[in-house]
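Sample 1 of the test manifest.
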Amino acid sequence: MATDRTTLLERIRREVERNRVRARNGLRHVAGIGRVEVGCSPKDLVWRRDKVQMYRYRSDRRTVEPPLLLVMSLVTKPYVFDLRPGNSFVEALLARGLDVYMLDWGTPDAAEADNSFETYCDEYLPFACASVMRTSDVDELHVFGYCFGGVLSLIFAGGHPEMPLRTLSLMATPIDFREMGAAAAILRDERLLLDDLLDETGNVPADAVFRGVSSARVMGDATAYASLLENLESSEYIAAHQAMRGWATDHIPFPGACFRQTAEWLFRENRLAENRLATARGPIDIGAIDCPVMNATGTLDHLVPTASNEPLLDLIPHADDLRFECGHVGLIIGSRAHHVSVPQMIDWIIAHSDEAAT
Amino acid sequence: MNRPPPPLWKQVFDSVEARVAPVIDDLMKREDVLTAVVLAQRTRGEVDRRVERTSRRMLHLLNLPAGSDVNRLLAHIARLEREIGELRNELADRENAALLAELSARHEAGRSRPGTSAEQRARKRKGGGGRGDRPDDAARADPT
């Protein structure tokens, strides 16, 4: 009887303590106290052009070459590559001896409203690659594009056969834009005037980008917050949630000219999937990309469903297809990424690399 | 170690979410919903344009600048910023431009020879070429 009472009291005490911690963490989260630091790996600015900046991550064990250039989408910030210590793709790359560079497109304003595919694929990317090769003193490089960054990398590689790419890695990259869900259906509709989506700077504002991305999974926010509520006693979970939600809602404006090209060429005319894309520089032949290509996708990706990526394997039959059971960000963030997708992707890159000359 | 089952409220939420989410996602793809979204967007655009036109006329009557005047100035400043940026880039990126020109020239020269560029590079790696082979490396090493 006395033991039962002790056990009951102990359970009540534990429950009270647990709820105290939950309440404290909940209040801290709502008040924005203890926001987590993101993009912490030390890096140096090595090149800039207009608002575009390229960083090289510091490392004392660059044992593999050529270097790797990370290319992010135009509408989200690149710190997702280096989200948090212990949950960072960049950390994993550096730990395996790679020399890592990252392109940050910056936040566009009126000066970038005329930026088009030509600006990104025929100007910024070639110059960034040249800068990587000069800085690392090598004559080749790996390019790794994520989401729309993969589209830019693909157009760049297809339009610049002279660029000495050792490999091209595409992660969660849409090819068939007609398979991109609700946002695609709206953009595909020619009744929508594209100029109505632009603000006074000539760009698509960040909140409109966020609404478009969110429409891929309407219940996504509710699910994320329900999971947060369930795990409120875990400071680690809250920190991960803050970092992830912070990034997922931290969009940047989409440059107007590139948005028009994306809507007309990719969403309405599906030119990328049909390999009939051309920029002002000339036709882009995706099929002529002859370097090794890695195509990594998440089978649970709501933003870029696998159906949207599949035509890549028809366009580039020699591409190595890596599929993982995860979502859009789960490819590089989270414990499954840490144990499964990230090591496999890095293994592929290392298999196509050399030992660095000392 | 097995994870404890989620609390009852979470189990209820998960079950509701599993049923509701696909319905909402499908709804978002329906033609009439898309039409409504497009219509709302166009109406908003039209209202914005009319409000802008009216307020511009009123402000101009009072000899005050309107938002559209400020936007025109912004666009003008942006154009100037771009022009200055182009000049700055031309100066700052000279060495990268030289390397890109060299790569293009080498590619053009190599097109007449058999084998793809990736194959050629792979052959060169096996043959011990690569690092230090770039023409501008030689140029940098040569002080003359």
